[in-house]
Design goal:
- This protein is of the alpha+beta class.
- It is built from eight helices and 16 strands.
- The strands form five sheets. A five-stranded mixed β-sheet has the order 7-9-5-3-13, with no helix packed on it.
- The chain is elongated and about 110 Å long.
Length: 305
């Protein structure tokens, strides 16, 4: 016959009593975090905290075994001596108040997500403007400037470009024509209507013959776009300084010559800005020779044969 005592030992108990103080001491001695223990057992850190504070000292035997495994001890080491006197921890449930709070939190999160989405979409719709300038130029020389504007949205609204020239520099010509900015050191403005695709604003400026050499001349500019009745202003990126010295603007690295790598970009730019005052013949002559030198007295470039 079967032994009744053996059946009793094999029957699983509904719960076991744990000693929260002992559990906390073992965990801290082994330098384990509540988060680690919780992840092994499969409960929250709040549950681990309640167990350690003897809020629910009677827990499911399965959880107690996992807890012992997490702490790397035998199950008996974390059990309370004597009979269990407290109920097993209740299964969490949503009360009406909690349910309302969860719904309210979800609504707030959805509203915040929608706001962030609209903000990012508005940023994506804003055109970006990037300026190109030659790195070097000589006093009295006419130099090209280009601003490339990328419109990310189809049917984009119009925008305003504003450029502040270095002191004493004079606007020569522009395509499209500038709305203002003829005087030296003026703020040059363009009003660009709405439309699709990229936009190029090209212009030439003349450096004063009295401009200090071996110094950088600084440009600054901004693009203004009206979205939703609000003006958004963004700085123009790209190159913002030209070093004034004994260099031709097509001499990109300032080594006193226009080589094969520099002549083609200069040609394409001069063709694109045809009629704006750039001197292609002098560029081609320098490229055909061995280089150039700057005649400080005559304010001109002399080709080295």
């Amino acid at each position: 016959m079967d032994n009744p005592a053996e059946k009793t030992e094999k029957s699983p108990l509904p719960g076991v009593a744990i000693d929260g103080t002992t559990i906390k001491s073992i965990r801290e001695a082994k330098k384990l975090t509540q988060l680690y223990v919780a992840s092994v057992v499969g409960v929250t850190t709040d549950t681990i905290s309640r167990w350690e504070n003897n809020r629910y000292p009677t827990i499911k035997r399965e959880n107690a075994e996992k807890l012992a495994t997490a702490l790397d001890v035998e199950l008996e080491e974390i059990l309370r001596q004597g009979p269990a006197v407290m109920e097993e921890e209740p299964t969490p449930s949503f009360t009406p108040t909690k349910r309302r709070l969860v719904i309210a939190a979800a609504v707030v999160l959805m509203a915040a997500g929608l706001t962030i989405y609209l903000f990012i979409r508005q940023l994506a719709a804003t055109p970006t403007a990037v300026r190109w300038l030659p790195h070097y130029a000589a006093p009295g020389e006419i130099v090209p400037v280009q601003i490339k504007v990328t419109r990310r949205d189809s049917g984009s609204r119009g925008f305003i470009i504003k450029e502040q020239l270095p002191a004493g520099w004079r606007l020569v010509k522009a395509v499209p024509a500038a709305s203002s900015g003829e005087p030296a050191a003026a703020e040059v403005k363009w009003l660009i209507p709405g439309g699709n695709g990229p936009v190029s604003v090209s212009y030439t400026v003349q450096i004063p013959e009295t401009a200090p050499v071996n110094r950088k001349a600084l440009f600054s500019g901004k693009i203004i776009v009206n979205t939703g009745g609000i003006n958004r202003t963004e700085p123009i990126g790209g190159i913002a300084a030209v070093t004034v010295g004994a260099f031709h603007w097509a001499d990109a690295n300032g080594d006193g010559r226009i080589d094969d790598n520099e002549i083609m970009p200069a040609y394409y730019l001069t063709e694109e800005l045809k009629g704006l005052g750039l001197d292609w013949k002098s560029i081609e002559a320098i490229w055909s020779g061995k280089g150039y030198v700057w005649d400080k007295e005559r304010k001109t470039f002399v080709v080295v044969k």
